[in-house]
# Entry
Amino acid sequence: MNKQRLDKLTQQILDNGLDGLALVPGPNMFYFSGIDCHLSERPILLFVLADDEPAIIIPTLEAMKAAAAGISPDYIFDWRDEEGFRGAFQQACARLELSDCLLGVEAYHMRVLEHEMLHRYAPGLQTTHADEIIAQIRMVKDAAEIAAMTKAVAVAETALQALLPQIKVGQTEKQVAALLTRLLLEGGADTIAFGPIVSAGPNSASPHATPTERPLQYGDLLVIDWGVYVDGYPSDITRTFAIGEIDAELAHIHQVVRAANAAGKAAARPGATGQDVDRAARAVIEAAGYGAYFIHRTGHGLGLMVHEPPNMVEGNTEPLQVGNVFTVEPGIYLPDRGGVRIEDNLVITAEGNHSLTTMTRELLTVG
# Structure
């Protein structure tokens, strides 16, 4: 268990008038407890309580992880496959006196199953969304987290630099994506952060395109969005390339997006908001006449998950803090012609910000 993080979480529980939190397997459970389990048909639930020590409902086959994390044996409610999990829920709810309590839960992750079991065995229990409470702690990264993401960026950028000379006209998007994946894994990635987006020509006008069998052609814009996990933390980078000589307007929108990327980064500093960063990047694209073709937020937070708070989006007026890590990734997408996105990974510092990504944002020609 990470005592420093648990202490912060307990304070948030008290400050928000809760009796405790219930966490399901995933990033939040791992962040606070170090317990690494996946969500499956075997329910697992970690309780962090305002006035008691941490407790967990967990299958017997995983119980050693709870013991290794430092949870007291009396607070490990384990269950075997042949007996089922209902008894463990009943025992935990009684021992922890959850009836009539107000329990925060992960609204985006808790399933109906766990929610139903809690209410069945804790009469009068009330649950409320706790995602924002947890996000307030996780949004501020410590030195170890930033170091891991710095490594993840370096691995990703090195692999892409090795890929570029190997890109040829006639290769399919799928072939390029497969080659990049191999280079990432051979280059030190623990795993890839997501299936690389490799989209060319008209396909590049779709921000979240899936690589296809379409061959790369002269005159295409080529968008590559890729990242890896190293030491549990990700990188998420996008660069756009020209395959041979491209249309003048396509080259122009690359210049506009590059300027928007720079403007968004310049606006990122302590006390500024996600809305400020989004507006700064969006203003450049709108001034160039392409506002209708910038169809997503300017960025999202990075941490244990590739997408997490804080978001660089209109309406986010929460001040940025030292230690926030997020992307700045404006784009322009012209239907049936092509798209451009340039994405960097930033950390807020006392002086302003520092870009973890270093690869050039210039329009490179490949193929």
